[in-house]
Structure formats: structure tokens, C-alpha cells
Amino acid sequence: MSRLDSFIRRMQAQRDCLNWAAEQVGGLPGPILEVGLGNGRTYDHLRALLPGRDIYVFEREVRAHPDCIPAADRLLLGDIQETIPCAAARLGRSAALIHCDLGTGDHAANVRMGEMLGALLDSMLAPGGYVVVNQPLDVQRWTRLPEPPGVPRDRYFIYRAAE
Amino acid sequence: MSRLDSFIRRMQAQRDCLNWAAEQVGGLPGPILEVGLGNGRTYDHLRALLPGRDIYVFEREVRAHPDCIPAADRLLLGDIQETIPCAAARLGRSAALIHCDLGTGDHAANVRMGEMLGALLDSMLAPGGYVVVNQPLDVQRWTRLPEPPGVPRDRYFIYRAAE
Question: Does residue A3 belong to the interface with chain B, where contact is any CB pair within 8 Å?
Fold first, then answer.
């Protein structure tokens, strides 16, 4: 499979997982978190799926399309090791859905940061809240859920926190 | 439609057009040109579709995945306004297939460069050769072909030079 084929499959898996998760959180209060804005495509998708919901975006440095940059009071700029603890102190474990796609392309670095990343995201996730993420994360309070129908295994990952 | 949905559709259209064009050039001799390497995904796709064919890549500055960088004698580095005339002087109008995806995200700049780009690509395209490109180009010797079945209109463009 070429990198183009593989990339298309990953994008489809990402979209299908977000679509599925957005349906689940319809009745679950709390903000949505987008960890890693990138070009802003998934942020745009989340706000289309969940109109009216508060979406907080964590990004080191904004490089997104101008149409896909959140309002200043919803954009938390800096290293997530600083911005997430700061946001968690204010918002607590309240997020209904966290999407995290920190794509460095450096698989080894992603795995190394996995433990830290899981703990950071967990510090903001509401009981019964969902995490959609581009890499496996091992957090005791979370259960990995199966991919939605039609999504190949292990391209994208969905977790739910204990209620 | 969100930017994520739109992006997935564009990637699918790109792949389906390349797959279709690669089938057409099976019996047509001459090199393949990749104008704009980017992250290297479509280059990887083309070499998977057309094993053994010479693929020349034009790029201003290489930022591709290390696995997707062509051999030095197939990589023409610099501004295409210099590298294409230089390659055309050596290879002539011999290319069986040209894929061009110069995605700046700046639509107006792309349109402005369209006339120059059409003439540059035409200077290397064999009679009966194919062009697969991310923007419309108006070249007298070319005929626009319909998209392959299932590909939405105007997301990607296919032309063929007169024989």
C-alpha cells in the first residue's frame, strides 16, 4: 500500500471516529478539547459536528488556515505540559470529548510521550467522556472501545473514561 | 462540508485520477514527471503504480519523508521556471504522464501561475501524453478528459495532449 493510500485510510478513520464520537456526546455536557490544531481541518470538522459546543484548542504554534483559528479565549498556546495543567486547574475533569492528533511523524517520540500524554488528557476528561486519538494510550481509568463499523483496526483509537 | 471532508475527497480524487492515468500509460513510452514532491505521498503512489518507469521529480526544496526522496539523478531541485526548461532541453517532449500538485493554498497565486505552468508542462509532454493536475490549465494542444467514474467534478483535472 502506498503512502497516499495509507494516508487516505488514516484520514477516513479519523473522520469516521470523530463522527461516531460526536454522536455519543450529544447528551454529555462539558467542553470539547482539540489537542493539536495543525492545519485546522479536524477543528473545522468538530465545530461542524457539534455546533454551539465550547471547543478549546491546544497548540504550540498556530499554522492553521485563517478560517480555522479559534477565538482567542478558546486557544491555549504553548507546550501542553504547561497549558493542559493550567486549563485543568480552571475547568477540571469536565471534557466530554478530547481529540488528540499530535502528528510529529516521529513514531518513537510519540511513544515516549505516550505516558505523559495519557496522564495530561486524563486530567481533563469527564467521567464517561471520550478520547479519540492517533496513537494508543494506556490510562487505567479508560477503556478502549472498538472502532466504528467500517473503520480498520489500529489506524485511530477511541477510549472512554469510567463513569 | 467540513475542511476534513473536503480534504478527504480531494485526496481520493487525486488517487483515483492517478490510478486511471497510470493504466493509460502502460503502452506509452517515456518518463513520468512529478512536479511538486511535497511530503512524497503521490511520488510513492506513482512508483508503486508504475514500477520500473523513470520518474523525474521537480521540487524547490525537499521536505518529504526520507523514504520518499528520489535518487539524486532523478531529482531536479530549484524553481520550475529554471529546472523545467533545462530538463526539456535534455529530454524533449517525451513525458508519458505528468502529475502536478503545487499546493500553495493560495488560489489566486495558482491561477496567476496557470498560464506559465501550462506552457512549462507542455514543453515536456509527449504527443498523446497525460497530465493529472490539481488546478485547471488552458493549453491549446491539450484536451480535458472527463474524471474517472466515481470522481466528483472539478476536484482534480486530467488532460491529454494531441497525438
Answer: yes
Instruction: List all residues 6 or more positions away from A34 whose beta carbon is below 8 Å from its beta carbon.
Output: A42, A43, A46, A55, A56, A57, A58, A99
Inter-residue contact A78 to A113 (CB < 8 Å): no
Of B114, B139, B141, B145, nearest in space to B127 by CA: B141
| Cβ-nearest to A44 among B3, B14, B48 | B3
Which residue of chain A comes nearest to B106, CA vs CA?
Answer: A65
What are chain B's domains?
Answer: 3-161 (3.40.50.150)
CB contact under 8 A, B4 and A41: yes
| Residue numbers in A near B18 (CB within 8 A) | 4
Q: Rg of chain B over CA atoms, in angstroms?
A: 15
pLDDT on residue A104: 60
Contact flag B44-A4 (C-beta cutoff 8 Å): yes
Looking at this predicted complex, what is its ipTM?
0.91
CA distances from A59 to A34, A79, A80, B87 (A): 9, 7, 8, 42
Q: What is the pLDDT of residue B103?
A: 67
Cβ distance A8 to B3 less than 8 Å, yes or no, reads no
C-alpha cell at A59: 497548540
Question: Given an 8 Å threshold on Cβ–Cβ distance, is B2 in contact with A45?
Answer: yes
Give the global pTM. Answer: 0.88
Quote the DSSP letter at residue A141. Answer: T
Please tell me if residue A4 touches chain B, with a CB cutoff of 8 Å: yes
Q: Cell numbers at residue B157, please?
A: 483535472
